[in-house]
Design goal:
Blueprint lengths: L1 H77 L4 H19 L7 H43 L1
Length: about 150
């Protein structure tokens, strides 16, 4: 009879130990997943910065060339001696001014400003995602610690 009781107690102890081990493995996997989320957001942040800098540089180069063209065409129009030359010089100046004001067929200034503003909003979006991932990690760690303390 004592052998049966001892066997049942040993079986119950083994089942409890397996359950505790599985709980600890589950908590570890959840914690690793939470840290992985933080790593992903940090990688997004690090990848975004060079792309944002290049976007702003490209936009600034486009704007610089547009305004240099407008200034050059304007000075040509002002130096024209007769109405025919003035009209000929005004056409490119008008196209350049229209392009700078957002009416051109190319990337307009307004669209460029919008793109730069959208790109400027991306770091905030990534920072928000990073903060949420960190909150989840903290919450997950706290749950893991409480779960571990209850299982002892």
């Amino acid at each position: 009879m004592t052998l049966i009781v001892t066997g049942v107690l040993a079986f119950v102890a083994i089942v409890v130990l397996i359950g505790m081990y599985n709980s600890l493995v589950q908590l570890r996997v959840r914690s690793e997943s939470a840290w992985s989320d933080v790593d992903v957001q940090l990688k997004r942040r690090h990848d975004l910065i060079p792309n944002l800098v290049e976007s702003v540089k490209g936009y600034a180069t486009h704007e610089k060339s547009t305004f240099e063209d407008i200034a050059r065409y304007r000075s040509m129009a002002m130096q024209a001696d007769n109405p025919t030359d003035a009209a000929r010089a005004e056409k490119p100046a008008h196209r350049g001014a229209t392009r700078a004001a957002g009416g051109g067929g190319e990337l307009s200034a307004i669209a460029g400003v919008g793109a730069v503003h959208r790109a400027a909003g991306l770091p905030q979006s990534i920072e928000d995602s990073l903060q949420n991932a960190r909150r989840y990690t903290t919450r997950s760690s706290a749950i893991s610690i409480r779960g571990f303390n209850r299982s002892r």
